[in-house]
Amino acid sequence: MNERKRSEELGELLGLEPVSLMIKKSRLGWFGYVEHKDDTDQVKYCVMFEVKGNSQKRRPKKIW
Question: How confident is the model at residue 52 (pLDDT cuts 50, 70, 90)?
Fold first, then answer.
């Protein structure tokens, strides 16, 4: 009557890739696109920008 299937099973039946794999592929495609841009491009500058200084390791203690 009402056959319920998990999303992973449906993906296998339909021949779909897992969502996590699709996201990783799109991220890598974007990274490759940025890597091939000129060094003067703003997007590449933002990706390769290094922040100077120390970052806080823990959140500050609460002071009441």
Answer: confident
pLDDT of residue 46: 83
Spatial neighbors of 47 by CB under 8 A, at least 6 apart, are 34
Gap between the Cα atoms of 24 and 62, Å rounded: 38
Structure tokens at 3: 């056959």
Spatial separation of the C-alpha atoms in residues 62 and 64, rounded to whole Å: 6
Domain ranges of the chain: 16-48
State the Cα–Cα distance between residues 47 and 25, nearest whole angstrom: 18
- For 34, the 3-state DSSP assignment is helix
